[in-house]
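Teaching assistant's notes for section 4

Start the section by putting this record on the projector. Ask students to predict, before seeing the second block, whether Putative amino acid transporter will look compact or extended. Collect guesses on the board.
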Amino acid sequence: MLDHGAAPPTAERSRSGLTAPRPGSRALGPRLMRRKPVELLVAEGGQGEGGKLRRSLGMWQLTMISIGATLGTGIFVVLGEAVPDAGPAVVVSFAIAGLTALFSALSYAELAGTIPVSGSSYSYAYATLGELVAWVCGWCLILEYGVSVAAVAVGWGQYLNELLDGTLGVTIPDALAAPPGDGGLFNLPALLVVLLAMAFLLGGAKESARANTIMVTVKIAALVLFCAVAFTGVRAGNYTPFMPLGMAGVSAAGATLFFSYIGFDAASTAGEEARNPQRDLPRAIMLSLVIVTALYCLVAAVAVGALPWKRFAGSEAALAGIMKDVTGQSFWAVLLAAGAVVAIASVVLTVLYGQTRILFAMSRDGLVPKVFSKVHPASGVPRANTVIVSLFCGVLAAAIPLGQLADATSIGTLFAFALVNIAVIVLRRTRPTMQRTFRVPLSPLFPLVGFGLCLWMMGSLDRVTWMVFGVWMAVGLVLYFAYGMRRSRLATAEK
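Reveal the predicted structure now:
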């Protein structure tokens, strides 16, 4: 059990022995800075409207959730967009993005072991930085998780076409395989993969985790196969000039590729369905990030060595094309495309899972409608939440081009990660006696470095992405002041 230290002076003991805000009390601070006690967050773990989430996931399954949500996105989809910015130095871009993710992962690991709940960084911010900041963080997570599902689903259709072309000699017509703006009318494959993930999620967390583990194994095997085959086509001349567009290009590519790392925190959204979250969540987060970063850098190094960097422009199925060029045979490309189809489906499944659990936590706190926290008693799954989120993401995937989605997701992710780094520092100062199963080394230095790296990478994104982010945040603030601020459970407890 965690030793949460003494109860805050502004709280009283409930019948369960945990803290809850006193009705009529304003002691939690100004309305926008209301904080939810850590004890209350933990006590509510798993409880929804009409049912409770089931604790059925072990460390290996949590690690596979994080790898499933991360591995595949950048390598199978975004690599073709990043190489034209950085050239062969895209390997450095992956390393920079991975280093940025590492500092934030340390902060996530500490907070996930201390506050093992479904809300991820939203809940961490609620306990440390106040309700308004928590809402902003949650709104960024909706952008991070929900929109990234759509972005990844768009890339899935590209590899599905490669697979169909290599096996049956047919492809889905452009009008039905690409969104408006990319030469099509409606991206049907993107919608289908989201609906397929929805079907798995409705079956239950344990069943979804089992399917995800199988898919993660397939995708790792596919990437190892790519490295083995494509290595035979590596030419030293393809690595020169190594940094043709300078450090600015490497930085810009790194900011785009950060999109590839957003899934490492997916395990933290499973805090209320993990059997031993205090022990397993920190381990799963760190282990998954190490595995993913190593594979990303290895595959990127082989890819740019086997194909001149200028030929990557406009390719969303770059790895399959490299396999075909190196071997001169379509068999290997088809095999890789099959692996990519499975890999990207795994990303859609696990990221969609994370989004539903974040909305579950926000709904339980009263900041979004109650329908998102209703749990089906038989399956232990928030069914209505899953269906609503899946349909929204599926329609988004079918209508929005990939590039715009990836960059918008990156900036929302970076902002949320920056807040997590600050939350670690705040919780260390306000609750120093809490038992922590993992501690960020050299705190507050490492969290401050993580915070600074997040801001630096946000600054590398283009003006259009910042405009989209600004509009997104403005909409979020309007919703908070119009709905969440008055309906939050902490607000109603104060009346």
